[in-house]
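Fold it.
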Amino acid sequence: MIDQLVTSHRSQVSFLIALLVIATTALLFQPEFVKKIHQYSFDSYNRILHRKNDNKVVILSLDQASHQHMGVWPPPRDMWGDIIETITQMGAKAVVFDFIFMHPERAAMPEGKSMPPLADMPEGTSYYDAYFAHKIHGSKKVALPFLTARLDREQIPVRKMDIIYHGGSRGNLSRYFYANQHYIGSIPVLVNAAAGTGHANFVTESDGILRRCPIMMGRTNADNQVVDLYPALSLEVIRVAEGITTPYHVTGSPTGGIESVSFGPYTIPTDMYGRARIYYAGRQGREYISLREVIQGKVDRSHIDGKIVYIGAISENMGDVKPSPLDPVMRGVEAHAEITEQILSGKFLHRTDVMMAGEIIIMLGTTLAVIFFVQRMHTLVMVASVGLLVVLEMLAGFLAFQYKGWLFDPLCPAIITTIIFMLAAILDALRTKIVSN
């Protein structure tokens, strides 16, 4: 068989076409190594052509200096209430915490103080929780997060805005979203006072990199049926900041799954599981302010006025780490800020079945041309032709990303075409040498 492969042109063509069929099958079924190549290509796009930051989000950093200034951790909740009041008076469009207040404050009411006026206050609420909730409610600009939990506890999240479904019923569409039975969040008196609440969960890829965010997440019952959906924290903070009072709209795809989630003037394209691809800007252009500076009154109003303010941990030993294509130590609060900025900018990334089909068609066309023309062209001419095709594919991928946000991967077709060309050239050279002898 090997002799026939070396000496017969027809056998060589059949062998190379068989390899091409295997490669096409790999692109269709996306094994892990193909996904890795795609991820490398798309990460490279984002590193080279990162999103420009419009400076609409500022992060108040809970850094070591702030931690030391507060003196105790966690700080008393009347301090958080005063921080919210200060930020609101400085003109913040919205204030978001990147952490939850899961337990009630048990400290006794300070001498000479009275309970703040607060409607529907649960019995037994401490002064500090009531004070904090009073400031949250008075601001009308605060959004609080909640998280999925592995605990066997029942804490049903509060959704502040309705959801309308298009292209399918709630039951048919909600089953595509990531879901969990148990959630944890802040205590009810704070949640009820907040203007917005959203899930703060992320789902990383197999390599631990955060590339997509669940725009909504579901809550399941004991029978694992999704009974409700909740928007991401980044959506809720924009809704609060923009004063959007209309429902969320979940639109199903004609081919199955989710197509988009929209609210107000914003429409977010998603994959079939309701995840949006994150187009990173990185830290460049985003303002970070130490929370200590706010407490000390050293921050000028211009740094806060008209901006969405996230409060979260940035220091090395604090906060959760969510590696991104641009930053291996990106913090969770920065991930929320990235998604918020991206939605506000309207710059989204798209990866559709049509793009994947285009990659396969290009790969088939260029590789078949190599197989059938390798013996008819001079080797150097063929090398130059294949090299030019690869360069054009790479250029097309970058242009599609830059101007349309399309995630077209030229690397897989280029690798397959190059490997088959090299095999074709080697086999043709061996066959020519044997025939001439």
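The chain has a mean pLDDT of 89.
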